[in-house]
Amino acid sequence: METYLQFVDRWAKAILLVLFSITVFFASQLGKLTNDSNPYLLPETHPARKSILDMQQEFSGTFDAAMIVIHNEKDIFNRTSLDAVYELTQSSRKLMLATPSDADYLDTLANKYGEVNPEFQKLATDILKDGFSQSDFFVADQLLELSKTLSLSQAERAFMDYLPRRLNPIKEMAGLAASDNIITQDGTLKIFKSLHDKIVPAEQIKQEVMGNELMLNSVYSADNKSTMITVELFVKQDDADGQVRAYEAIKHLVDDYRARHPEFTDDVYIAGVPIFIAEQKKLTDSDLATLLPMVLLIVGGILVVFFRRPMGFVLPMLNVVMCTIWTLGMMSLFRVPMDLVTSALPVFLITICGADAIHMMNEYYTQHNSGLTPKEAVKKSLRAMFSPIVLTTVTTVAGFLFSTSTNISSIQSFGIFMAVGLFSAQIISLLLIPAWLNLTRGKSKVDLTKASGRERLGSALETFFGGLIKRRKASLIVFSLFMVGLGFMATKIVVEDAGSDYFSATNEFRKSDEFVNAHIAGTSPGWVEIAGGEPNAILNTETVAFIDKLDQFLLTQENVTYTYSIATYIKRMNLALHDMNPEYNRLPNRTEIVTSIDPETNQEISEQISGDDLISQLVLLYENGGGSDLNNVLTRDFSKAAVLFTMNTTRATEYQTLLNNLDVWLAQNKPANVNIQVAGTPVIWTGVLHEIIKGQLTSFLLAFSSICVVLMLWLRSSKLGLLTALPLAATMVSYYGIMAILGIELNIGTALISFIVVGIVDYSVHYLHRVKDHLAATNASIDESLLYAVRHSGASIVFNVALFSLGFLTLLFSQFKPIAYLGGLVALALTISGFMSIFLISMLAPWFMRREKPPVFDTTYETNIEKAGEYS
Prior knowledge:
Elements: H1 2-10, H2 12-29, H3 47-56, E1 65-71, H4 79-93, H5 100-113, H6 118-129, H7 137-147, H8 154-167, E2 170-174, E3 180-185, E4 188-193, H9 202-209, E5 226-233, H10 240-260, E6 267-272, H11 273-307, H12 310-333, H13 345-352, H14 355-369, H15 374-401, H16 409-438, H17 448-470, H18 472-490, H19 508-519, E7 524-531, H20 541-555, E8 560-564, H21 566-577, E9 591-597, E10 604-610, H22 611-624, E11 640-647, H23 652-669, E12 675-680, H24 681-715, H25 718-742, H26 752-759, H27 762-777, H28 782-809, H29 817-848, H30 861-871
Antiparallel strand pairs: 1-5, 1-6, 2-5, 3-4, 7-11, 7-12, 8-11, 9-10
Helix pairs in contact: 2-12, 2-16, 4-10, 5-6, 6-7, 7-8, 10-11, 11-12, 11-13, 11-28, 12-13, 12-14, 12-16, 13-16, 13-28, 14-15, 14-16, 15-16, 15-24, 15-26, 15-27, 17-28, 18-25, 20-23, 23-24, 24-25, 24-26, 25-26, 25-29, 26-29, 27-28, 27-29, 27-30, 28-29
């Protein structure tokens, strides 16, 4: 300790120079910090995500799609509406997301790495020569492969990875002007786009698509008032800027069409997963821009009110700002992007990481007001505060690090970098504050006026908790009853992930999402893959009949609005080839009797044909007729099929209900010769749901156990370690119980609170530390020492609770509901934690602590306290 005190005194100026130099370095890295608004929250290797990524290698139609829904209050089948559908479809097909700034960046990379790899420069020059076009995709893809041999920065590598798909972002399209329709014309199967020009009468188009199961509730609504253009995007999910560009480009297409066609007055809604991603990116950017200055203002204001001294404001503020810069700079260096969860990181850092500085400054002013010089006050404060500050940081870091036991990548990043921020804050506070104060020239002056507010609060707390201590047994009985009730309610908490419901009710995307879910298709697509294991395994009556039964089962589920499969195509072609006779809107039987007229004898001939052969012939007819949509539901070798289904919900519990029912049905109906894989939005979001539940339990148990061990080792007492940790457990039970009572769901945002609460033990540590010091320094009883600690540490605890709570309440202004809920709930949890720390230690201390034999003391009380700190 003495070596440390001499170091911060002797090298004060050098310490400040080094700290500020490190801060400048990390600040220079902030411009390289990237943003990832991928809403899936799980890594690509997680089974819930890997299933759909695997399907995308074999089936088109499985990529995330933007949905443009046009709604006409009377009937969508009118010439004005159909012309808009036609033009918007053609315009969307030509969409390109690469910009002139991308061209400039590519030119910079070509010049930068041209000498290292001339072929790289040549391909880049070829792309730039005549300006960007969709046909540049293949050259850009070659360029991407070449770039893997170069030493690119994080930003450069991301740019090269995104460029090909930004050049040609359209994977596939569906809609009246893009989807295949199947009819017969002059006895011949005809496959064509119903809306293929602006000439065909609207009524004819309506008649051609009416009742078509391939299009009903997907391309057009059952009430004929809405139609949807589906734009399947090839943009990478983690290309947040690309998703935003796609959203803006589609909105621009719609606005441009309206400007050129004032007669078009239909409502237009834009929804889908890429739009969800883009909107989240916008909210992340908005939150960073508004919440950060807001929390700085609030924290600064509280510091001014509490300390009423320049250094009481400057040093804690410098501490939190520097630790925030260090942490975000570290994220940039390690190529960790900001996402929906980590976007709240700056608010957490500024609010939590000031605790050490506040405790030190509070102790410093207490010592300085007693008549000590600044240097003497610094030394005495550090001797008193070093041990509890280090201990609380170790336990809080442990709490956040154990949050990484979850598979939710956003929470992993949050936990790791909160730990980095807390560690940085401690290093800064233990160096910055004493070094700065050692350079000040202040007079020894007792200022009781400025301490009177804290004293009055301390006295009030002493009176309140003194009354509880006098009635210890009754207080514990009432407390136990409350805990039993809250514990029971905690078992009733609802775990949910609610998608678009997380946006405010006035959000443009949410309104579009809700309209699409209420009127057509639904915005949550899922897929069921049926793998036969060998070529042509799907094209038989047994397997296709199973797929049809699967379609029908899915349609009976509450939130499923549409299904689409090879069975749907076979039934449509069978119907069309029999002159739309409703009796033939079915699959071929195992054997079919086919009749025809012999052209020579003009007699009817009957022939028995295998249903398997008939299915194969229908598929061949479709392909020969120019159809192109079968690759959405069938692989080229016919070994696998996919069933698409859409759901009109974004709630994970409703996804889970469907998947549970599907599992039961498949167990009873799946043929032995096929394998089943379910993928898509329902699987991903229920995967997130499972990870939240599992992560909460695992992380809490690991964090709580590790904190107990650290406390026991540090305090050299298993009893005291347990006593210090018990308020955390009580806080967690109370927090979950109150959430259940208030009907607040446990989601991706509120799940973070357990990691915060379980790691913050500084209330208990500082309170217990003060009790032990008083016991060791005096002949007082345990209850007298408790009241002394309440009077002197209680005000500091209340101030920390107020500071943390008000800081976190700024999150209420977030436009993303889980983060907004997080703000209010953290304030609640910290208030509970502060109360539990004082209450439980005060109530249980006689059973967990023993009266130490006091050492020999000097005659001055302050010297005794100092020696007692060393003694304890």
